[in-house]
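Worked problem 6 (solution included).
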Amino acid sequence: MNKVELDPDASPAAEFGAFLRSSREARGWRQEDLAAAVGYSATHVSAVETGRRPPTRRLSRELDRAFGWERVFARKALDIKDTALLAGFPEYVAQEARAAEVRLFTLGIVPGVLQTMDYAKAIAAGAMRRGSITPDQADERVAVLARRQAKLRRDPQPLIHAVLDESCIRRPVGGPGVMAEQLDALAAFAAMPHTVLQVAPLAIGENRAFDLPVYILTFPDRSLMSYAESAQQGNLERDSSAVLPTLAAYYQLQAMALSQADSVALIGELREELP
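Solution. The predicted structure is:
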């Protein structure tokens, strides 16, 4: 069985999983050995180690008992609870890094993987001023975004389809300078050979396929995964057959959106209005 490589920097859950694996292996234990010691299945232990399942309070207590430690795992589990990342998002990010194709739709703000760092920092600062997140959580959001963008620049690069609701490019964020840089970045993104950028005009009205941000991943074996989120929760769908209706709706959205040429032209018009 191939051993899944872990990236402890991907998220707090991934850091917990990497620490758990290294601690287990230092003791010479198999996943089955640890599972028996804590009263969980080996499959559950594997999911926690790979960051696909966050550790519960009960599991953390059992891990501390099995290793003979005083609240080491319990404290690390609290770090996960305090994260600003929504449920399902850390696993989505891990899967995004291996996808052959990424399709996304957002409204209100430019999607994270297309944001400039100044734009991302302005969004995080706004959430912090509203009291939605702490300064540490704001830093975490920006750091996770930077890592996501770096992984999408891998070789070979995935094909990225991005449909942005027109509100994304019209909503001012961070002041004219930040917004100007962001619009320039979108135009540059559209010019890349592995990207498709479209704007869904406001005139679509009630015919817009989605009312929430949606991400669809296609893997090299053509299997699918989707992720959708509201302000308070994220939902990850791992069943390819269940993702197909979302993919069909995405194609319908693309058909109603502006062409890439017209989208870039609209972005250029808005850019000309800024300093």
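Discussion: The chain has a mean pLDDT of 90.
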